Amino acid sequence: MSENERGATGIKNNPFMLVTGSFYPGEAEAFCENEEDPERQALAKAELLYFRGETAAAYSAFRALSESSSDRIVLAATLGTAISSLSGENILEIIKLYNSVKTLNNLIPQDNPVKATANTFMIYFNILLHNFSEIRFPPVGADAFNVPDSLKPMAFYAYTHYLIETGDIGRAVGMAEGALIFMDKPCPISEIYLSLIICRGYMLRKLWDKAEYFFRHAWSLAAPDKLIMPFAEHRGMLSGMLEKCLRFEESAEYKRILELSNRYHSSWVTVHNELTGDKISDALTAIEFNVASLASKGSSNNEIADLLGITVNSVRAHLRNIFNKLGIDSRKELHKYVL
Fold this sequence. Notes:
By secondary structure, this protein is an all-alpha fold. The chain has a single domain (3-278), classed as Tetratricopeptide repeat domain (Serine Threonine Protein Phosphatase 5, Tetratricopeptide repeat, Alpha Horseshoe), CATH 1.25.40.10. It contains 17 helices and no strands. The protein starts with 16 loop residues before the first helix and ends in a 13-residue tail after the last helix.
């Protein structure tokens, strides 16, 4: 039985066709064109624009689909509009869109086939915003990821990213590697996200060769279709590895990733503060934020340099800039401004 014929577990019940789709690297555009339904094709093309870092065009494409007569297209389009807005500057609109998606998701009955998709991507969005109080996972076990087959890799990404952020590194890496091993067909976007989580886990364990292997694996999947946005989203987590692998080898793409990540970082911090009531600083760049976060948790300059793949002198320079921007003079004060 083909995936399209599987009813509740089939891809036609999953509005995010590209994210969960099976195609070989370099075939993303053809994959989108092969969809016969005009709205689903338009949605897939909007996804592709986003993952290529063309966030303004993606925003317009998603927004145009928000008037669809299909509830699942409206939900996906609204969520896509909100996510692509994170690289913009209209914070009030992002929060309004976020609340719209949350409301739409809450209205979907639990037995609706699209509910699992909506839940997974709401978790993904809340992870992007570091809005962990809104994240609810099912108990770990046989039914922990009772989602359509095509959605399982992305569901594992959402869970393992959450585990990384909450310090459960070994479990995150083990689950993400297991998800990759048991994938029975290519699913490039989910594979990219899973590989970047594994890379981050090995970076935290200072296993640099393994971290580099998974980073380069992610890039080998992304480069043929120019899927740079996952790297911009994870810029802070990948500091050092991004520079080592792309700064000189792929200089144009590296510069685009940095530009995207700086816009994205500034927006998510502001939205995070509005949604959670936190007061973390939006004055820091992505790399400064990462340095400040590590320093606030007691990491030495040498440890920060090792973890981020930069020199100790660079760490010192970043800390000077951080202190100047925040108007403070000690590491003890950093915890008020970072996660």
